[in-house]
Design a protein that fits this description.
77 residues, 0% strand, mainly alpha
Length: 77
């Protein structure tokens, strides 16, 4: 994250990416995130969607809870 290609003896961005075995698009993505997140930009993010595609009604949720309770009492925990 401290890489600055404008320094006199710095590697080019292409050479820097090759040395780390990453693509330039990944480099720019991490560099952009580092502006806002600092060191947290280096940690991988979840790829799960923010909003799940399916939403279930309360009736379905209640039925699942009932089935799980029954399985637990039957020893299938």
């Amino acid at each position: 994250m401290n890489y600055d290609p404008t320094q006199p003896h710095a590697l080019s961005i292409i050479a820097f990416c090759r040395s780390l075995k990453i693509s330039r698009s990944v480099f720019y993505k991490i560099r952009g995130r580092a502006v806002h997140e600092a060191a947290a930009a280096l940690h991988p993010r979840s790829r799960a969607p923010n909003v799940p595609a399916r939403r279930y009604g309360q009736g379905v949720v209640n039925e699942v809870v009932k089935i799980r309770k029954q399985l637990k009492t039957d020893g299938w925990d």
